[in-house]
Amino acid sequence: MDRCWYHGNITRSKAEDLLSKVGKDGSFLVRASESISSAYALCVLFRNCVYTYRILPNKENKLIVQASEGVPVKYFDNLDELIEFYKKENMGLVWHLKYPVQREEEEAADEPEED
Q1: Is the alpha carbon torsion for 34, 67, 107, 18 positive or negative?
Q2: Residue 30: is it exposed, middle or buried by C-beta count within 10 angstroms (0-12/13-18/19+)?
Q3: Model pLDDT, residue 110
Q4: 22/19 Cα distance (integer angstroms)
Q5: Most C-beta atoms within 10 A of its C-beta, which of 32, 37, 40, 115?
Q6: How large is the average pLDDT for residues 44-50?
């Protein structure tokens, strides 16, 4: 699957700039977490604000999204599965994932390994 939405090691600030340029609700990208080495950050634009969700691996290497309290925890085998799930409406994010923000040419994004 094409991971055009995966930006690797870009900063939170750079992610926010990229999403703000697009300016459409549901624009999203995934980047490597700046604070946790094995985690990712899912960044979603909604009403001109960027919402960042931490994606964490559990002990079995399943991925979970750290969402609001009360949102049921869902486990994913990989990033592709997670992104496809959150493209559906009303799944617990501020807005469903609609417009993948593609990497810029000069970004050296290391793709996460396939499972």
Answers
A1: negative
A2: buried
A3: 54
A4: 5
A5: 40
A6: 97
> Residue 82: what residue type?
L
User: Do 34 and 106 form a contact (C-beta atoms < 8 A)?
Assistant: no
- The class level of CATH for 12-100 reads alpha beta
Query: Cβ neighbours of residue 111 under 8 Å, at least 6 residues apart?
Result: 3, 6, 8
Q: Are 56 and 47 in contact (CB under 8 A)?
A: no
> What are the phi and psi torsion angles at 20 (to 5°)?
-65, -35
Domain ranges of the chain: 12-100
| Mean pLDDT within 9-15 | 96
* Tokens (6 digits) for 96: 């469903």
* Rounded CA separation 1/30 (Å): 15
Residue that is written with structure tokens 């870009």 in the block: 10
59-97 pLDDT tens trace: 899 999 987 777 778 999 999 999 999 999 888 889 999
The C-alpha atoms of residue 62 and residue 48 are separated, in whole angstroms, by 31
